[in-house]
Every structure is written in C-alpha cells, then in structure tokens.
Please model this.
Amino acid sequence: MTFKLSSRAVLGLAALAAGILVADLAFAQTAAPAAAAAPAAPAAPTFNKGDNAWMLTATVLVLLMTIPGLALFYGGLVRSKNMLSVLAHVFYTVCIVTLIWVIYGYSLAFTGGSPYIGGLSKAFLMGVNADSQAATFSNGATIHEYIYICFQMTFAAITPALIVGAFAERIKFSALALFIPLWVTFVYFPIAHMVWYWAGPDAITDAAKALAAAATPEAKEKAQAALDAVNADAGQVFIWGAIDFAGGTVVHINAGIAGLVGALMIGKRTGYGRELMAPHSLTMSMIGASLLWVGWFGFNAGSNLEANGGAALAMINSFVATAAAALAWMFAEWIFKGKPSLLGMISGCVAGLVAVTPASGFSGPMGAIVLGLITGPVCFFFSTTIKNALGYDDSLDVFGVHCIGGILGALGTGILVNPALGGAGIMDYTIGKIADYDMMAQMISQSKGVLTTLVWSGVGSAIIYKFVDVIVGLRIVPDKEREGLDVTEQGERAYNM
Amino acid sequence: MKIVMAIIKPFKLDEVRDALTSIGVQGLTVTEVKGYGRQKGHTEIYRGAEYAVSFLPKIKIEVAVATNQVDKVIGAITGAAKTGQIGDGKIFVFNLENAIRIRTGETADAAL
Model:
C-alpha cells in the first residue's frame, strides 16, 4: 500500500486551494451576504468512478488468482490421486473465509481497537452501506467501502489457501475444515490489523493542519495530543514504520511459516524420498502459475486502492520482477541441475511475484528487477538444497517460495524504497510530502515486521495444529493416503478415463 | 500359427502398422506398456527432487499370423521399428494353438 501522494492528487489539492482562494477574493470584493462563506468546512471526500471501477476489477482478479490460479498450480504438482483434494482445499478455504470475513474478520482487521487487533464495531458489517466510504492513500479520495471489504476479503482468502500446499497429499479434510477458520481468526486478522490498519490520510492531515493552526500554547498541546492519537490509531507494525505494499508479511511470510510448521507437525508423506512423487500435470501448473501472474496485477496494483501512478508503478514492477525471478531460477537450475525446466520457470515466477508484493508500490522498476534476480536463485536454493538437507516434507514448497520470497521482499522493500535508488519514498501525511529516508531506521522497522509475523504465525499456527490434532486428528491413515485423498476423502476421482 | 509380439518405441507405431498392412496383415493389438532393457531409465528432476525413472514407456504389439508369414512379419517390424539406437525393442514369437472369429465361428487360419 502506498503513501506516495499522486501528482493528480497534488494537482487536485492545488486546484482546491486555488478555488478557495478565488472564492474568498470574490467574497471580499462583492461583500455578498453569508451564503458563500460556508466552504470553510473541509470538502467532503469524493468518490472517483475510475478508482471504484479499477478496484472492482482488481478484486475479481485476486479471486482469479486463488480459484482457479493457485488451485491449478498446486493441483498439477501433486499426484493424480490427490488432485481433487487440493482443489477442494483451496475452494473450501475461499468460501469459508469469505463468510467469516463479513461476519467478524473485516471488523477485527480494519477497525480501531488495540494495536494488535481491531474491535467488533463492524461485525456483520454493522453500519456499512452502499454509501460508506473507505480511505485510500490520497487526501480527499475514497472508494466505496463494500469494494474495499471485498478486496481485502480476497486477500484473507488466498493467504490460508497458500498454506494447503505444505501439507498436501496427507491432511484430513475435516482437519483442514477446522484449521482454516481458526487460523484466519487468530493469525491472519491480527497480522493484517498490525501491518495495515491506520486512520487514513485525511485524519492525519486534518490533525496536522489543526496543529499548525493552533495559536495558543494550550491549543497547540491539545492539537498535538489529537495528532498523536490519530497516529496511534493504527496497527503495531504500522506504528513501527514497517511498510508492506501488498502483503509480503501479511500474506506470504504469514502463510509460508504456517506451512513449514504444518509440514513439520503433520510429518512426511508416506514414501517420501523413496517413491516417485512427480507432479501429475505440469500443464495444469503452468496454467495456474500464469493465472496467478495475471491475477497478481489486481493484488499488487489494486493495493494502491486508486487508479493512478502508484498503481502503474506496482504494475510495471509486477511485470519485471516476476520475469527476472523466473529467468534467474531457470538459469540457476540449468547451471546446477543441468536442465532449464518449466517447473523451474513457473516456480521462479511465483517467487518473484511474492518478493515484489511488498515492494511493488515502493521500488523503482530497476530495483524490482534486482529483487527478482536475487529472489529466483535464493528460493531455488531453499526449495531444493536446504529442504533436502533438513529433510522436512513441505510438499509444494510453501516455505521455500512464500516465506523466503516474502522475507527477501519485505527486507528488500526497506532498501528499494530509497528515492536515491529510484524508489518512491514514504509519504509523511503530517507534513504532506515524502519523508527523509533513513536506511538504518527503515531496515529495523522492516525486520521488526518480519520477526513479528514469523513469531506470531509460527507459534499461533503450532497451537492451532495441535488443537486440531487433538479434536479431529490432522493426518489421514496410511492406507487411505496410499489410495489417494480424492477417493477416500472426497469420494470422487479427478480423471475418469 | 504364431503370435508375434514386439516391444517397440512408441513413435514407431504408425510406421510398423503401415509396414504390416502392406504385407497383408489383417489385424493388430496394441498396448501401452512400461519396462526396461539395455536402455535403462533416465532421471527426472522436480524442484531438486531427483527421480530415477527406471521403466520407460514402450508400445507392445501382438499379431497372430499363419506360420508361413512369420518371417515376413518379423522383417516388416524390424525394418520399420529400427533406428539403430539402443532401446529399439525386441520381438518374441510364440506358438498359437487356435484362433476363433467370434462373429462367424471360423477357426485357425480362416479366423486370422
């Protein structure tokens, strides 16, 4: 999410200021009676149909990422006897999270409360209607809150869906059905709140203006307290100053570490390392990865919340970083394993998308290419050498791609946001311009965001897995695992030929 | 009568069929099979997971012919399926006791 004030918005503000000035002059000259004096009140935020249209589109693009994009990407990577189980896991996750989101998820993530979790003031979408507005990153610009709710809903849905790749081919459906609601409630909503919740640009700017306008020391003190209160009305990681444009921490590190914990707690697949577990359809996986890439423009450029230069920056970064990472993974594999595989390319593609997610609205395009070039080989190394050395069975490399890629992206964002490196800088709404960049401070903030996510999700997920194991049992029995989850859990098979 | 069973490379099937048709063979049964011989297998790598694939896909054809046709059939298959590379396959010949055409009840050579 960007804090860059778009040039259009600057122009708009300038025009507004000029308009008020002209109105004042006219008022003074003609000395007309009071009617025109009313504009002293701040102008009501305006809906921009372009912004709303873009966000409607971005929202369905993110849904496309999950179903069928992610589902096919994962489904193609498992054996044919488990194809439907993976598709079912992803589809179930989307549906259950969609409902939880409107019942209490949105409220817990995106209303004020504590720095760690929001309140229940918007549970059941209380008080929200078709006229409600949600803040963007520009002063005086809003989008319809229903769209914002749906957009964030798709993020809440894809994040737990990413985890299912880690324990694919051996988890009970009942365990998954219980795990997903618990995980989003106790892990996703708090992290989303901590990283993304804030009062919005108008609240900060208004409070800053009030402070500037305060004449007496007492009024200044009062205005300062009000500004501090507005700044404190945000998530803890946000308050630390960590930036995460579209979810490097919230989505990818969060899901990645939960996946690793799950793979460790559920244990290896029967026959892992001894039997052939080759992907059953890399064709499906290629279609899925490509849909992920297409949908990811909604994810990254949509996270700008407005159809402006910030969205354009996120879009170009999501092109170049992804291409760079796909090629970098492919060449690394070509050099170290002898062949440039398609699976390597599409894995690098996803890793690049993951890494550019937090950086997409902050980095410049050349910085994004560097990020992609680094991410490809590092994720390749983690998903192959490190995984094999440590011996854990993260079936579809949720940790190696999403957690490692997310960490590289989150830390890389702290460097690449630097305007001196072509980055967009970080907007300071109290002074209304880009803040001075301090690499040390920014990297400390970014690291705190990464560590908070790792610890919260790692520990939280472990507790939830344990709980689910006690209640329904996590793992399917070996006989059923051998037969395949499609027939034993779903009662159907993917290919009747 | 004899059964000629041949294991051949999958992409040679059409050439073998044409060669057999041209010498008057009236029918053929084809099965997709896996196996290994001197060609051994190969290695597949999926994100660093290396699998030694020891059984390679082949095509098995079975053709029932009159005894005096066997050499011609073997010649046709050999000519069409040969690439000179390792893994071209093998031909096995069995004795066939009888053959019956289900529709007419004809037996032996008349049923082929």
Remarks:
- Chain B touches chain A through eight residues (CB under 8 Å).
- The longest strand of chain B covers residues 56-65.
- The two ends of chain B are 9 Å apart (CA to CA).
